Amino acid sequence: MTSHPIFFTRRTIYLLGFLACAGLIAFALYLQHKLGEDPCALCIFQRVAVIALGVVFLLGALHNPGVRGNRIYASLGLITTLAGGGIAARHVWLQHLPQDQVPECGPGLSYLMETQPWLQVFQNVLQGSGECAEVGWTFLRLSIPEWTLLCFLLFAVMAMFQFRNRRG
Q1: Residues 54-76 as b or e (16 or more Cβ within 10 Å = b)
Q2: Where does residue 146 rank: exposed (0-12), middle (13-18), buried (19+ CB within 10 A)?
Q3: 35 vs 77, 106, 116, 133, 147, CA distance in Å?
C-alpha cells in the first residue's frame, strides 16, 4: 500500500477549488464595494460562473464521491469552467477592440431582465457593450477579465486532473 499526500485526495482538491472560488468572489466584492469597481453585465455573468463552480467544488468536497461520482463532479466542473472561461474570453476580446469598434453602451442588466426573456438577456449580454470594454482595475498589467480567464484556465486543469484522480 502506497501512501500519498493528503493534498492530492479528491476531497482536498475540491475543497481547495471551493476556497479559491470563494476568494475570487470575496475579492470581486472588495473591488466593487471598497474600490468602486462596479461590475458590468459580463462581469456579473463571470461571477455567476465562479459561484456555480464553487458550488460544484463544495458538493464534491462534502460528498467525497467514489471514482464514478468524482467523474461526474469533474465533468460538471469542467463544463462550468468552460462556460465561464468563454464569457471571460469574450470580455477580454471586447477590452482589446480598437476604440472605434467598441459597441455602444446599452441598457443595464436589471432593465434587460425586467423587459426581456432570459435567453434574450443572455444573448444581449454576450454581445457586450461599451462599459464592458472599459479597463478599470489592473494587476501586473492584466485586467479583471484577463485574471478571471486565467483562473478559469487553472480551474479547467484542476477539473481534468480530478477526472483522472483515483485518490480518495
Answers
A1: bebbbebbeebbeeeebeebbeb
A2: buried
A3: 30, 24, 31, 19, 17
DSSP-based three-state secondary structure for 139: strand
Which residues lie closer than 8 Å to 114 by C-beta, 6 or more apart?
A: none
Q: Please spell the DSSP secondary structure of 7-44, one letter per residue.
A: GGSHHHHHHHHHHHHHHHHHHHHHHHHTS-----HHHH
- What does the DSSP 8-state code read for residue 96? T
The answer to whether 37 and 31 have CB atoms below 8 angstroms apart is yes
* Cβ-based burial of 5 (10 A; exposed 0-12, middle 13-18, buried ≥19): exposed
Q: Is the dihedral of CA 66, 69, 72, 76 positive or negative?
A: negative
Torsion of CA 76, 78, 82, 84, to 10 degrees: 60
pLDDT tens for the chain, residues 1 to 168: 445 555 678 889 999 999 999 999 999 999 999 998 888 888 888 999 999 999 999 999 999 888 888 999 999 999 999 999 999 998 898 888 777 766 665 556 666 677 778 677 766 666 655 567 778 877 899 999 999 999 999 999 999 988 887 766
Residue type, 44: I
